[in-house]
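sanity check this record:

:::
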Amino acid sequence: MTRGTARIREILAATRLERVRYAIRDIAVIGEQLAREGKEILPLNIGDPLAYDFSTPPHMVEAVARAMRDGKNGYAPSLGVPEALEAVRARAERQGIRNIQSVFITQGVSEAVDICLTALLNPGENVLTPSPEYPLYSAVLAKLGAEPNRYDLDEDDGWQPDLERLAGHVFAGTRGIVVINPNNPTGAVVSRRTLERIVELAREHNLVIFADEIYDRLLLSDEEHVSIAALAPDVPVVTFNGLSKAYLAPGWRVGWGIVSGEPAAVKPYVEGIHKLLRARLCANCPEQYAIKAALEGPEDHLAEATAKLRRRRDLTMRWAHATPRVSLTEPRGAFYAFPRLDIPDSDENFTRELLLEKQVMVVHGSGFGQAPGTRHIRLVFLPDEAKLSRALGSITAFIEERYP
């Protein structure tokens, strides 16, 4: 058979990828096509502050530039550069975290999540994840072949975890529980009492708590943020954080993990994490030198950023109150709103048609998980007030035209 007439045989992707979804980026494919056609897109879909009117603090930029000029452009130690590790550990201790057994730097929190779940789970085991949730967790678990095990967040209770139902989701193969606080996509801040009860559950069933606290400095209301590891020095906790959100440097991909708990209990797990960290060599090197500058340097940008976000959150709340078929539980942290829609369509269809007709890009709530029979969208309130008002006004017009 000649080369020109050879039968083409498809190279199929692994079947385990069939459950991998990432709604935040998936919707952008349509937006990119519309942009190529010359249409202006109003993006409310992705949590990148630098796509709007925020900028990375100059002293952090200078720290990275200095590291590059000083020739720190080679491989770093697998766990991270020493001064970065010391700064992360010191900040964790200031938050009240004790019994720290490991600190490591990763390519954003996403890599930390991937490594820590991979190091824990055997075939047939599972981890409890919130619904709604940041979809990275489900994507990684699907890649690992783990069965979904979701616990509900109660919209009528400010999106707090439904603790009564949560306990009923712990099975023989359940190894951990994910707590995203403040939450993406709802903006909820978990109360201390709820965190204490989650700790009790983890202690009783020997679960690892995965505490995603990347938005811990972006609080929009009066309550304090409590790091769950500070409540439980004896319980195995992996606390995730990084420079992407509060420190306004998402493109640098700088994240970290902090493992705390009783040394004898977590030692084998930590060794597994370290083995995977060595296998991928290291995280970005020069950018790690911004960690000490961020965590120990001036934080003037935080007051300005949270003031902007409060105004834009309040604008979003006013929009929701004034728009038919929309209700919204107030976000109290981060920069996301998760409004509920009273519509006959699916939220995925709503999102697609909104983008095609009004060029406003939001993410369908089903991409994060939601209670059966409910429909939501996630939108970011990062744009300046003028752009945000224009985008929200377009959503109102779409709803009024489509559902008179």
